[in-house]
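Reviewer comment 2.1 asked that we show a complete input and output for one of the modelled complexes. We chose the iron/sulfur cluster case, as it is the one discussed in the main text.
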Amino acid sequence: MAMDHVDDTAGDSGADGATGVGAAHGAGSSGDLERELASVVGGLRTHLEWLLGLGVSHAPAGPTPRSSPPSADGVETSGDTQAGDAVMGSGNTLSLLDNPGPGREGLAAVRGLLGDCQRCRLSRDRVQIVFGQGNPTADLMFVGEGPGRDEDLQGKAFVGAAGRLLTKMIQAMGHHREDVFIANVVKCRPPRNRNPEPDEMASCEPFLLAQIRAIRPTVIVTLGRFAAQTLLQTDQSIGRLRGRLHTFHLDGDQVALCPTYHPAYLLRNPGAKRAVWEDLQLVMALLDRPASGR
Ligand code: SF4
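Response of the prediction step:
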């Protein structure tokens, strides 16, 4: 697998409903219009710089009138639907989130659809969207619940104290952090690090699923109960879910999924490290097996 690195450093700093395009509807003065245009252009420039940083030579297609059949890669765009709205799966339109394409460019397409997302209330207090980062074709993917303060400030997943512990876990498994992909269920920091609400997770889940479609990992390790419950669609506790491999079903494919405790929990409860190590050994044994059918 390629070992290149996707790193979301998109500058969503300061994004909030008051400065978004939608909030500017009804602006009456030319000054308001100029500020709106400056905001749009600034956001577009930031996103294009992010794509260039990935080495992507062209941006994902925006909404265009559909006068021709779907392209050969099976990705359709709807003539009267904003790309972001395709997330909601209008009619029979196959959204980009359903088929973002593989690897780096697939992730870039997902990030493009996310845009300056304001689909849930978590957009109000974030500094920036934390998309996730790592190897875009990783065998091993980690999914946590949401960014914390450090992640919100830096725009990267798992960079605080819990992130440093996660790095040690990855290294103990014989990998480098750059080898794996790290993401969260919600991509904006919940205020005061509260738990994400069900509707917030539901709003953001399509983007996580699209990331998984692009990366196609062999194993997903979920960190904490929210990631496990979201992907396994269960309300069982993490204590009951961990300790064995599960099967995550996506588009008819099956991906091994290993729930374990969140590194932040381990920082408060070091005694649980043994259980986590047992979980990670299950993953290591699976990854050591010869790949089949990928
Ligand atoms: S948490 Fe997800 S759905 Fe909610 S605003 Fe952030 S990116 Fe959008």
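The pocket of iron/sulfur cluster is lined by residues 114, 117-120, 122-123, 129, 186-188, 200, 203-204 (CB under 6 Å). We note this here for comparison with the apo prediction described in Section 3.2.
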